[in-house]
Amino acid sequence: MSLVLSGTQPFDDPPAPDRPVIRRLAPLLVNQIAAGEVIERPASVVKELVENAIDAGATRITVELEEGGVKLVRVTDDGVGLDKDDLPLALTPHATSKIAEADDLDRIATMGFRGEALASIASVARVSIRSRVRGAESGWSIACEGGATREPTPAAGPIGTSVTVRELFFNTPARRKFLRTERTEKGRCLDWVRDLAMAHPLIGFTVIDGDTKPLELPANQTPRQRAVALLGKELEGELLEVAVDQFDDERGVLVWGLIGRPSIARPTARAQHLFLNGRTIKDRTVLHALKEGYRGLIDPGRHPTAVLLLETSPTAVDVNVHPAKLEVRFRDSSAVHRAVLTGVRRALQEADLTPTVEAKASPQAPMFGPVQADLSAVMFAERVRESRDDARLATGWSGPPTPAPPSIFAGPNEPPVARRAERVLQVMDSYLVVEDGDGILLIDQHALHERVMFQTLLERLGQARAQDGSLEHQKMLTPAVGPCESSALERLDEVGDLLRVLGIEASLAGPTSVGVHAFPSLLLSRKVEPASFVAELLQRVDRGEVRVGSETASEAALHEVLDMMACKAAVKAGDPLSEHEIAELLRLRETVERSSSCPHGRPTSIRIGRSEIERLFARR
Ligand code: ADP
Ligand code: MG
Question: What confidence tens digit (pLDDT) does each residue in 446-483 have?
Fold first, then answer.
């Protein structure tokens, strides 16, 4: 840019062509810019208007849509209404009845508070509001187009408010181009209504789209009724209730929700709905706690179904951190994490998660409904197993230093206690068949034993670490030596800490061999070969499948290795079991947490209900 010093030149310079001129923007343009942040599409209009209706204390809200909301969105409520003088103010930017001073920002209990939604919408669409307050003779209506608000005029109508938004983005064609098909826009409008309805079960909701009613929810539902109505009645039996009350102080939190059995986990997170104080949120802390709660019950690539409603004191959270208020900041996010994790874990622990094959009432119902949903988890686990078998090496294992007890007990000191005199059959040397309740139970012996081993190892490791120790192990009289790829051997130092915690001592025994000097007792008792185990572990680290390093990575690595240990230590498919071993495995099934699925989330047992058996025999 050229710098012009006045008085140094004889003539007035023409204005430099590239000199920026600062102007005050017209109010309409200001509002259109603000609208850019909050009004992206018809669904944003629906969200803002429904939130206003909720704030107005509505007990019934009706949403009408035309052409996916682009042509028309009308939200009608039976709330407190707006008086004649309120109407122009409601359309004025930064005018709100919900906060008055800065301190109010720390205790927001309403859905809105910025006072810009209606003004923003009115800058990019044709808006009219009709409203009547309780006790008033008649109502008023006001129209606003292109930022110009007209005088209110008397209008008849019931108590409450109806806001009509026509031709969204009629004056901002660039924004209109970003809209998707009518179907997509309509779907998003519905998603918002569903979300808001989930969080407000006392309010009745109706959506009218042309001559159809895609959604109709009665008022005064319980949270459970509302969640089931929205998730689908057919899922009711698959949902478990979460309830945690840690609302003991200002930072406390209350959690209520419904979460899906592992068998209905999905490949996407679409069936996850989080709410905080009546508001839909996206929150990593809560999602992490949810995922953590399901650890070992579903494969990590799948997402549990969950509706979680959190309540905190308004002072325990900052909602003013995101333009559409989708993200929030908790004052004490670890307390929230703890509460959600506790609730989810407890719900899953208390439930019998054995997938059950039951005859369905409807003839079209898939025969293996809930089990089939888990098929991809089964396939996932198979893949893991195959890749492990590939990686297994022939080793020069030099034999266990101590005689191994010939049992599959989790611990050598626990005497086997057979369950009530029940008849058990081992079939195909792989599965156990047991009578169970009103049906039969099919148990995958390897998967169940793997889960038992995993849980036992996890517990023992936890106890050892609490005392800064390592997993109970035995020193070898002569090291166990076995082959290992040289690139994998180079990772030995890196995994030193991990091995120590696990009670493993290993060193280089040659350019392509590894020597093991100490190994967990539990694995030795299960005849796991130390050198081939360590070689496989190093190779997995080398391939990046087990990642050590940061604190979180090493925690995950630890689980990964426990998982490997459990898999190796468990009885295999194809192993004939003695009566005594079978009895012990069944006993452990009852005592071990999460015994319904193996650590990869595959079911360990499947229940086939009497009704299904009868259906197969055409008895019903
Ligand atoms: P905010 O909700 O952030 O206050 P809005 O622009 O959405 O801002 O609304 C402005 C004001 O208009 C609100 O504070 C409220 O007083 C009033 N208002 C909007 N919608 C309704 C409604 N449906 N019923 C009663 N009052 C409403
Ligand atoms: Mg609002």
Answer: 999 999 999 889 889 989 988 888 999 999 999 999 99
Query: What DSSP string describes 88-100?
Result: HHHTSTT--SS--
Radius of gyration of the chain (CA): 32
Instruction: Examine the pLDDT at 99 and tell me if it is beyond 80.
Output: yes
Question: How far lies 514's CA from each of 192, 205, 368, 540, in Å?
Answer: 59, 67, 47, 15
The preferred substitution site among 44, 46, 48, 55 for testing ligand 1, maximizing ligand atoms within 8 Å of CB, is 55
Buried b (16+ CB within 10 A) or exposed e, 464-495: beeeeebbebbebeebbbbbbeeebbebbeeb
For residues 407 and 608, the model is more confident at 608
Mind listing the pLDDT tens digit for each residue in 122-143? 999 999 999 999 889 899 999 9
Instruction: Note residues around ion ligand 2 (Cβ under 5 angstroms).
Output: 52, 112, 117
CA dihedral sign of residues 117, 121, 123, 124: positive
User: Are 552 and 415 contacting, i.e. CB atoms less than 8 angstroms apart?
Assistant: no
Is ligand 1 within 6 A of the CB of residue 77? yes
With a 6 Å cutoff on the Cβ, whether 118 touches ligand 1 is yes
Mean pLDDT of the chain: 84
Residue with tokens 């517990």: 459
CB of 76 within 6 A of ligand 1: the answer is no
Q: Is 473 in the pocket of ligand 1 (CB under 6 A)?
A: no
Q: What pTM did the predictor assign?
A: 0.67
Residue 209 Cα, ligand 1 centroid: separation in angstroms? 24
